């Protein structure tokens, strides 16, 4: 991806300028917006690669901005918000956000989250360009057409639920999937019992794709929120 373009939606001038300087020094292109309505206009006209979005905007709530963008695009959205409650994070992620940073945050953490989002964008573009049914991440390979999963060339036998979880994570690589999203996609509901079952299935799945000796973690746990598949480099 050449010169990614970042849309920064933040009404606090000091924070907005800090982000702008940070992006500029890393040679990112960026567009600045201080309201929800202008953000939607910039999104439609500038076609950014990633959106950094504050939830507390002066005109419309950031949650509404997420929903309007999700009606048209799967562009990665990283929330930057002073709302630090777990319920706020879950609500934003369930609405379609990819990631959530609570203010105040460090510049390095912001850049790290941005790199994750850009890798996800690149993966989506490459997958669309290849138009194939094969997913590869590190030594993990999924053939969606045959529902076959291999690790370092060796087939892994998964239960239907384990495969469905892996399928959802792989097709949303780099994005945090909440417990609510996962349980609804798997069982069509989001009861506490489903979340407890999800944790059991997730633990069993990780034992199969993350052998202890490998030291590789394909799945990242976000305590109280959900899970994310991370991009892994292929081993020699």
UniProtKB/TrEMBL annotation:
It comes from the Bacteria. The modification 4-aspartylphosphate is found at residue 54. Residues 132-231 bind DNA. One of its GO terms (molecular function) is phosphorelay response regulator activity. CDD domains: REC_OmpR_KdpE-like, trans_reg_C. The keyword Hydrolase does not apply. It is found in: Cytoplasm. One of its GO terms (biological process) is positive regulation of DNA-templated transcription. Residues 132-231 form the OmpR/PhoB-type domain. Gene3D superfamilies: 3.40.50.2300, 6.10.250.690, Winged helix-like DNA-binding domain superfamily/Winged helix DNA-binding domain. GO terms for cellular component: cytosol; protein-DNA complex. Residues 5-118 form the Response regulatory domain. The keyword Transcription applies. Its main location: cytoplasm. Keywords: Cytoplasm, DNA-binding, Phosphoprotein, Transcription, Transcription regulation, Two-component regulatory system. PANTHER family: KDP OPERON TRANSCRIPTIONAL REGULATORY PROTEIN KDPE, REGULATOR OF RPOS. This is DNA-binding response regulator. It comes from Massilimicrobiota timonensis.
């Amino acid at each position: 991806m050449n010169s990614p373009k970042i849309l920064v939606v933040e009404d606090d001038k000091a924070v907005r300028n800090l982000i702008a300087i940070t992006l500029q020094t890393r040679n990112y292109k960026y567009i600045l917006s201080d309201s929800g309505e202008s953000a939607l206009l910039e999104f439609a006209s500038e076609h950014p690669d990633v959106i950094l979005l504050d939830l507390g905007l002066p005109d419309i709530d950031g949650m509404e901005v997420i929903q309007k963008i999700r009606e048209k695009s799967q562009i990665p959205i990283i929330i930057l918000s002073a709302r630090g409650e777990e319920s706020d994070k879950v609500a934003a992620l369930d609405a379609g956000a990819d990631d959530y940073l609570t203010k105040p945050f460090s510049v390095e953490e912001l850049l790290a989250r941005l790199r994750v989002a850009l890798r996800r964008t690149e993966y989506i573009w490459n997958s669309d360009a290849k138009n194939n049914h094969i997913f590869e991440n590190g030594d993990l390979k999924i053939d969606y057409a045959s529902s076959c999963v291999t690790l370092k060339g060796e087939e892994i036998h998964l239960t239907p639920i384990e495969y469905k979880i892996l399928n959802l994570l792989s097709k949303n690589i780099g994005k945090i999937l909440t417990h609510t999203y996962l349980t609804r996609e798997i069982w069509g509901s989001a009861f506490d019992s489903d979340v407890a079952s999800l944790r059991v299935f997730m633990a069993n799945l990780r034992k199969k794709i993350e052998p202890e000796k490998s030291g590789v973690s394909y799945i990242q746990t976000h305590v109280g929120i959900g899970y994310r598949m991370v991009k892994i480099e292929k081993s020699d």
